[in-house]
Specification:
By secondary structure, the chain is of the alpha+beta class. Helices cover about 40% and strands about 15% of the residues. The chain has one domain (about 5-135): Sufe protein. Chain: A (Alpha-Beta Complex). The longest helix has 22 residues, at about 100-125. It is globular. Bound molecules: FE2/S2 (inorganic) cluster. The site of FE2/S2 (inorganic) cluster has 9 residues, from helix 2 and helix 5.
Length: about 150
């Protein structure tokens, strides 16, 4: 299995890794098959711009690389623009993923959606086109785990 140079770059040197204190929205999703987990934090301005974004991923190389690329793609964008950052867009930006690893990129898209969902709930707003991600594991999460 060969990863593109971009995947290797984002895996070895992930952008936006970390967390945001008092985030505007935070979402955690998991992949039931492999058990990998991804959490995304947003700092969203009053006019709906994603000022900052951070992630923590407990997962495979492809999951780390897609989290890194996905956060790069949504940073500085509006919420509507962030919704356009699909797993396909993330894969393309990484020059592709091996077919068996494409599912890993779904985690990044879902984590973004889960964090936006949390933001919408906190603010009592509805975000057009946003549905609650199926793999949102927010409800079950107890204590912060150290990844
Ligand atoms: Fe689980 Fe990649 S193998 S996200």
């Amino acid at each position: 299995m060969a990863y593109s140079d971009k995947v290797m770059d984002h895996f070895s040197n992930p952008r936006n890794m970390g967390e945001i204190e008092n985030p505007s929205g935070v979402g955690t999703v998991g992949n039931a098959q492999c058990g990998d987990i991804m959490r995304v934090y947003f700092d969203i301005s009053d006019d709906g711009i994603i000022r900052d974004v951070k992630f923590k991923t407990f997962g495979c190389a492809a999951a780390v690389a897609t989290s890194s690329m996905a956060t790069e793609l949504v940073k500085g964008k509006t919420i509507a623009e962030a919704l356009e950052v699909t797993n396909k867009a993330v894969c393309e930006a990484l020059d592709g993923l091996p077919p068996v690893k494409v599912h890993c990129s779904l985690l990044a898209e879902e984590a973004i959606h889960a964090a936006l969902w949390d933001y919408a709930e906190k603010n009592g707003i509805v975000i057009d086109g946003l549905v609650k991600p199926k793999s949102d594991i927010h409800e079950d999460e107890e204590e912060e785990e150290e990844y």
